[in-house]
Design a protein that fits this description.
Blueprint: E1 7-8, E2 22-28, E3 37-40, E4 43-46, H1 49-65, E5 75-83, H2 100-111, E6 122-131, E7 136-143, H3 146-168
Parallel strand pairs: 5-6
Antiparallel strand pairs: 1-2, 2-7, 3-4, 5-7
Helix pairs in contact: 1-2
Length: 172
């Protein structure tokens, strides 16, 4: 278990804390995925339970330190997971374990009850794994406004129209 987790906080480019409905921060430490379970005497237990609990707790503590107000509506989230590149690896991208979806799950659960009431409020996530010098995750969370909703409705309407055109065989 990594007990040397160091945490840095900043917001935007200024390094100042953000309060209100948006926050950006970095959690230093090796990202821990949430997902793999083993069953012992009928009970499901996370394979990396202690590490996962520490990681989620650190994420929650960092979110609290930004003084973010708990978001009551939809949430946009951007995540960038940074891993050290092994010396023997030649590829530029970490398309290896841990799985991105399991890394995302740990962050979502770490922010539940702190940045938002429940992770079901998250309506948009962008996430990426990359190699870098300092392992950790860059997190940006922002409350969605009505300005976000209209373009999505237009996109969905346009998508449905194009899909119906393809299904019906209309090429005009």
């Amino acid at each position: 278990m990594n007990t040397d987790t160091e945490v840095l906080v900043w917001a935007g480019d200024s390094g100042n804390k953000i309060s209100g409905i948006e926050a950006s921060f970095f959690v230093k430490g090796k990202p821990v995925p949430q997902g793999s379970l083993k069953f012992i005497k009928g009970h499901a237990i996370h394979v990396k339970g202690r590490e996962l609990a520490l990681w989620r707790g650190t994420i929650a503590a960092m979110a609290r330190s930004t003084n973010i107000t708990k978001i009551q509506f939809g949430v946009d989230m951007d995540l960038l997971f940074i891993f050290n590149k092994p010396k023997t690896v030649k590829r530029d991208e970490p398309f290896v374990r841990p799985d991105l979806d399991k890394l995302i799950r740990a962050v979502l659960d770490g922010l539940t009850g702190v940045a938002y009431e429940d992770d079901q409020q998250v309506v948009r996530i962008t996430a990426q794994k990359a190699y870098g010098e300092i392992e950790g995750v860059h997190i940006r969370i922002k409350e969605r406004t009505s300005a976000h909703v209209r373009p999505i409705k237009d996109f969905v309407a346009s998508f449905v129209q194009r899909t119906e055109t393809v299904i019906n065989g209309d090429s005009n």
